[in-house]
From TrEMBL:
Species: Dendroctonus ponderosae
GO biological process, one term: glutathione metabolic process
Gene: 109541879
Name assigned to this protein: Glutathione S-transferase
Transmembrane residue ranges: none
Subunit structure: Homodimer.
Family annotation (SUPFAM superfamilies): GST C-terminal domain-like, Thioredoxin-like
Any one Pfam family match given in the protein's UniProt record, by short name: GST_C_2
InterPro entries membership: Glutathione-S-Trfase_C-like, Glutathione-S-Trfase_C_sf, Glutathione_S-Trfase, Glutathione_S-Trfase_N, Thioredoxin-like_sf
MF-aspect GO terms: glutathione transferase activity
Coiled coil: none
Amino acid sequence: MGSKAIDIYYYSPSPPSRAVLMLMKALGLEHNIKITNVVIGESKKPEFIKMNPLHTIPLITDNDWHLYDSHVIMQYLVDKYAKDDSLYPKDLKKRAIVNLRLFFDACYLFPKFGAYHAPTLYSGIAPSEENAKAMDEVLMHLDHFLEENKYTAGSHLTIADFAIIPTIATIDACGSADLTKYPNIRLWYRRTKSEMSAFGYEEVNQAGSEVFAQFYKTKLSAIQ
């Protein structure tokens, strides 16, 4: 480990923030949580933008070196600090599958999640049928990935599961999709929650999902 604890700039309603914090706990990394409320613009302050010009969270500082994007952060943390490569295999084919799922989250699942919820959160507009259909479609793909695998990238837990479960948990907490339609997701969800309980699942992911859901439901009720 480095000589300093790793700083994580974090906001609990943010699924990517929760992914990184749970991974840090899984790796046993000493860390300092720097709460950064993006809703009130704390990630747009000059001192933050100097560290991350995209003003996104999470952001980590490891020995005065800054890194952002949750997927890249998780790759970095495992490669640097993990005792073995089980969470992010060095075998090229196995690593490629993990990367596929990380890109699936970054390019499909999380953007569809955002497109569904953002109009309600920021513009007071109810979710559209188009965005609901798009989110169902991406969940169908995830369910397909899990048909022959216990976890999103194979037979054991990887950083792909850390990346994906915060978004699924938030969808579940908000009631934004009917997860009973996806039996493979439900089995994986239950299994992964149990396995991640040792990494602070309840206090990090469940609690953060509920904070997001409370905010979302309050906004939704105001327009119904």
